[in-house]
Amino acid sequence: MEEVVIVITDLYLTSAAEAASIRGIELPGLARVARYGSGHVLEQGWRPWLAKWSGQSELAQSAPATIVAAASRTKAREVDGRMVWIATPVHLVAGLSSVHLDVRGLLQMDLDTRRALAQDFNAVFTESGFRLEALSSAGFLLLGPRIDDLDTVEPARVLGASVSEALPAASTAPRLRRLVAEIEMWLHSHPVNADRARHGRLPITALWLWGGGGAREGIDLGTEPVIGSDTTDTVPASFVRGAALAATATPIPGVAFGHDPYLHGLWRMSGSNARPMPDHFEEVLGHTSRRAVFVLELSQSFDEHRHWTIRDALADLDRRWILSALDALRRRDIGRITVIANDHRLTLGSRDPWKLWRMPRPALTALQ
């Protein structure tokens, strides 16, 4: 295999609280990549980079929700002239002077629970003009009226920090801001949260709306079955943006693993399917694809291990995925490793470990 890419979607060190929580942590795999590899800043983040890496450069500037919509069941006749947003379940914490997004506040839910929550939302908010859809990958897609010139921040960038400046202002998007407040009240005593409390999980206090874009941009007028898939889902026959831009879907020269909705939408755009995470890294080595990408979330570890801290989740990720990839690189089973986090890309080739003159440095400094 030529290359393995490992993306950590929710490790951003812009928050002082998050950076302090992992200061001094030992990450031998990442430290080795940082010492011998080459680093680059991703000015626009990992999503546009992945679109280009997958051979779909024309999608790099599209709104994240527009890409996510490609993996939804929304029909084109339902979205003409409207917008879509990614709706991420989060846990907010009220402090003395501000509201913060908990460091562990990106929450996971199983598909049946997401579908039940979406069904209840659509019953309660039927007159609002908004509709919620549970995505098969993770999280939700919100369909609603068009709101121009609205910048939103993805919640992963606000972990451990105040949300006051990250949420859309009431003056620029009063209808959307009012909906956010009403969703918080709806969730406050929702049965889903009562069930989460019984199982020791953090309650869902809000749905964080972000990545909005024109719905028609990413949803074609027709759909076709996924070739070679064991699922009954459908995918867009082509990509439409503004005027009709139709092209035959070209398979991506790589296999993708993860739950991230953007990843699933991007691979659907090419007529392919992203896959669930394997249990072990070695499972990917026998795949016929030349390249592979793993899109990982620390929040997934928090859901599986409820008493873990960020340090625990990072150490586990380093051991299971980065160190395993380094072992495969040493055996020449793969030719290159790329690790992406905090808007930085680190790349290590099979010849790079011979650069013995490079001094060791703490792993996380390479991501800052």
SSE layout and pairings?
Elements: E1 3-8, H1 16-21, H2 28-36, E2 38-41, H3 46-53, H4 64-68, E3 83-94, E4 99-106, H5 111-124, E5 131-134, E6 140-144, H6 174-188, H7 191-198, E7 206-214, H8 215-218, E8 223-225, E9 234-236, E10 255-258, H9 261-269, E11 291-296, H10 298-304, H11 310-330, E12 336-341, E13 344-349
Parallel strand pairs: 1-11, 1-12, 10-11
Antiparallel strand pairs: 2-13, 3-4, 3-6, 3-7, 5-6, 8-9, 12-13
Helix pairs in contact: 2-11, 10-11
What attributes does this structure have?
11 helices; 368 residues; Alkaline Phosphatase, subunit A; alpha+beta; 2 domains; 13 strands; six-stranded mixed β-sheet; five-stranded antiparallel β-sheet
The succession of helices and strands, N to C, reads EHHEHHEEHEEHHEHEEEHEHHEE
**Helicity, as a percent range:** 25-40%
> What's the count of strands?
13
Residue fraction in strands? 15-25%
Spatial ordering of strands, largest sheet: 2-13-12-1-11-10
Largest sheet: 6 strands, mixed
Count helical runs.
Answer: 11
Cα radius of gyration in angstroms? 21 Å
Structural summary, described in words:
The chain folds into 2 domains: 3-55 and 250-367, Alkaline Phosphatase, subunit A (3-Layer(aba) Sandwich); 68-215, no CATH class. The protein has helices spanning 16-21, 28-36, 46-53, 64-68, 111-124, 174-188, 191-198, 215-218, 261-269, 298-304, 310-330, and strands spanning 3-8, 38-41, 83-94, 99-106, 131-134, 140-144, 206-214, 223-225, 234-236, 255-258, 291-296, 336-341, 344-349. The protein is globular. The chain is α+β, with helices and mostly antiparallel strands and 368 residues long. The strands form 3 sheets. The chain has a 6-stranded mixed beta sheet with strand order 2-13-12-1-11-10, with helices on both faces. Strands 3, 4, 5, 6 and 7 form a 5-stranded antiparallel beta sheet that branches. The longest helix has 21 residues, at 310-330. The protein has 11 helices and 13 strands.
